[in-house]
Amino acid sequence: MRRYLGQLSEAGKSVGTRHRRGTANQPILATPFGRHHIAAMVDPFPSPSPAWTLDSDSLDQGPGIPSSPGDAALLDDYSRVVSDVVDRVGPSVVRIDVRKNGRSAGSGSGVIISSDGLALTNSHVVQGSRTVSLTTLEGRELQARVLGDDPDTDLALLRVEADVALPAAKLGDSAKLKRGQIAIAIGNPLGFDATVTAGVVSALGRSLQSRTGRMIEDVVQTDAPLNPGNSGGPLVSSTGEVIGINTAVIMGAQGICFAVASNTASFVAGEIARHGRVRRAYIGVGAATLAIPRRIALRLALQQATGARLLSVDQAGPAAQAGLLTGDLVIALDGKPVTSVSDLVRALDADKIDRTISIDFLRRSEQLRLWIGPVERALAA
User: Fold this and answer.
1) 121 contacts: CB under 8 Å, gap ≥ 6
2) Which residue is catalytic, options 92, 124, 340, 343?
3) Pseudo-torsion of CA 35, 40, 43, 49, nearest 10°?
4) Among 149, 150, 152, 154, which one carries the catalytic annotation?
5) Dihedral angle at the C-alpha atoms of 211, 216, 220, 222, nearest 10 degrees?
6) What's the confidence (pLDDT) of residue 205?
7) How many CB atoms lie within 10 A of CB 177?
8) Distance between CA atoms of 207 and 65, rounded to whole angstroms?
9) Residue 299 in contact with residue 365, Cβ under 8 Å?
10) Cβ distance 290 to 344 under 8 Å?
11) 154 an active-site residue?
12) Is residue 341 part of a domain?
C-alpha cells in the first residue's frame, strides 16, 4: 500500500516535484497521493464497554481537581521568556520584498545581524536579485544590496544602502543546542508582519537537500510553526540568540520545520563578506553512498561499513588527473573517513583549495591511495 507523503516546500516557496525517495535524514519530496478508503474493521475480541465517571465522583482525578498555584507560575514564566525574547529580537526582524520587471516577485523575512545594516535571509527569498526592499518593525522602508547569495546553503547576505543604525540580533552557537530547548520563530508569514510562533528544538544534525542538489548539513529541526513568508527569519533561543535561519517546512506534516544552523549562517556570512561568495573545493566527481562488501571490510580491517562510490568522473577535473576511475569507492580524504556522499561534500571546503591531499579508495578488492589537488569550484552560471 502506498503511503501518503507530504509535499516538501521551502518556508517561503512551494516546491512541486515528482515522488523521489529521500534518506533517513532528509525529507521526502513527493506529490500527494489520494486518500485511501479503508473498510470498517471488526474486532474479533471486543473489549468491555468503558465506564465513565463524573469529576465529582472522584476528587483526585479529572478537571475537577484544582490546579496548583505552581502551574500558573510555570505558565507565566514560559510566557515571560517568550515575550522578553520577542521584545529584544523582534525589532531586528525585517520583511523582505523582491521586485522583478517592476512587479512584485515575492516576499520573505530577514534578520539584521549588525547595526550598520548587514542582514541574513534565504537564497530562495532573494531569487537571484541584486537589490531588495526591507521594511522594519516600525514600518521604515530601506533599500538593500545583495552582497552574496549561496544556494548551496540557501543563505544570502544583504547590506542596507542607507547610513543607518539598526537594532541587531546576535548569532548564537548552534553547537551548544540541545533537543527540547525552547525555539521561537519570528517572521512575516503570508504577509502578517511580526508574527511569533514557539516550540522546541525537535532534533539536531539533520541534512536537507538544497535546490542545487548539495546537502545542507547540521540543520536544526523544530516544531515552531512556519508558513510561507517565514523564510529567512530567525529561529531564536530562550536567551535571545539566533540559533537558525528558517528555511523549509514539510507541507501536510505536523510540526516538522527546518532552519539552517546559526554556525553555518555565521560561516557563510563571513565568507561572503570577505570574498563575495562561499569558496568550495572541487575534484570533479559524482558519487553515491554505497556499502562496503563485508568480506572486503574484514580482510582490510576497515572500521567503516560504507563509502562514497564514484558514479562519474570529469575527465578534465582533478580526480581524473589523479587517476581515479568510475566505480572507485572513496573511504577517506585528507586522512579523514568518508562514509557517505555528505562526508565527501563536507570535506571539500575552502581549506582544501590548491592543496595536495590524500584520497583513499577501494578498487575492486584492493585499498589504494592517490594524491589529488582540489581547485576552487566555479560559480554556477
Assistant:
1) 96, 108, 109, 110, 111, 155, 156, 158, 231, 232, 245
2) 124
3) 100
4) 154
5) 20
6) 85
7) 20
8) 45
9) yes
10) no
11) yes
12) yes
The CATH number given to whatever domain includes residue 319 is 2.30.42.10
- The size of the chain, in residues, is 381
Residue 75 grid cell: 505558565
Domains in the chain: how many in total?
Answer: 2
CB distance 245 to 255 below 8 Å: no
Specify if 363 maps to a domain: yes
Q: What phi and psi, each to the nearest 5 degrees, are found at residue 359?
A: -135, 120
> In the block, which residue shows the cell 525585517?
94
Q: Which domain CATH number covers 129?
A: 2.40.10.10
**Which one, of 121, 232, 133, lies nearest residue 185 by Cα?**
232
Q: Is 56 one of the catalytic residues?
A: no
**pLDDT tens-digit series, residues 111-158:** 999 999 999 999 999 999 999 999 999 999 999 999 999 998 999 999
Residue 337 lies in a domain: yes
- Residue that is last in its domain, among 144, 160, 176: 160
275 flagged as catalytic: no
Full residue range of the structural domain in which residue 105 is found: 90-160
**Paired residues of 73 in beta bridges:** none
Tell me the pairing of strands 241-250 and 170-171. Answer: parallel
C-alpha cell at 307: 563509502
Band the pLDDT of 68: cuts 50, 70, 90: low
Where does a domain end: 133, 160, 187?
Answer: 160
CB atoms within 10 A of CB 340: 21
Which residue has cell 465506564? 51
- pLDDT tens, 304-361? 999 999 999 999 999 999 999 999 999 999 999 999 887 898 889 889 999 999 999 9
Q: Which of 92, 109, 123, 231 is catalytic?
A: 231
Asked whether residue 2 is domain-assigned, the answer is: no
- Tell me how crowded residue 89 is: count the other CB atoms within 10 A of its CB: 24
User: What SS3 state is found at 114?
Assistant: strand
